[in-house]
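Hey L., structure's done. Input below.
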Amino acid sequence: MATRKFKTPQSPTHRAEKKRADILKSAGKCFRKTGFHQTSMQEICTEVGLGPGAVYRYFTGKDAIIAAMAEDERRQARMMLAEYHDTDDLPQALFAITQAFALRYAATSDAGLMTEIYAEGLRNKKVGTIIKKAESEWVDGLADMLRTAQKRKQIDPKLDAQQVALLLTAMWDGLVIRQAYTQDQPQALLAMFDSMLKNWLARDTVQAKPTKAKPIQKATPPTIKPITEKAAKKAEDDLRQSNLFKPEKKKNTKKVIAPEIPKLTEAELIAIEEAEIAAETDLRQMSLI
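Output:
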């Protein structure tokens, strides 16, 4: 006798979550074909096989669907970080994240949808708020992983963890977009990316042991013995004896040379004598007058 199989009844919450996921999946197909703004709500209803009332029960419009897609991206990013947070080999974990991104957005349409979601975040304030929050959580979580690896001496402790997390995120985003244009699995690119990460992050992991500075020895001042009266008197006597035996300094005496007086002839002497007599005679006559 054949046994009948009965399906396990689903809870209302589970059924609601499944319908919500079906709507998002169908909306994603429509968005991949014609883009966000060219897709109508009627096209989404047709794709999912539900009436407008059922779809609007879960989402108020296309903006709410796009915001829900951004929120799903954020949730999956949190799960990925939680999976690799306590890894003992960070470079290997980062390469695994790189492969996960490459596999997840392998299809050109998937990479294009991700790009459109980010572009819509620049135009739509609600979507932009969700994306910014998701980005902030992702970068902060990745930076926390890097700091943990630095404490474990797995990567260079001199690196700025926050800036490295931002750069890695930008590189992964670029890898996804580039993959959409090449339309094939970039295995060589992934291998190069892995080698670059290991060489970059592993620099200066072995820190030199700090050398202890030798303590500066204080110079001990010389001991000065007190001078006794006897020693002072002896030093004074020695000083006097030394002064007695010092040679006298020669005085710098220069001879004064008298100027030579020229010799006069006899005629000149007679003339001088006559001039003196005449002067004396004149002097006498002046006194008589």
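The chain has a mean pLDDT of 77. Residues 66-201 form a domain with the Tetracycline Repressor; domain 2 fold (CATH 1.10.357).

-- N.
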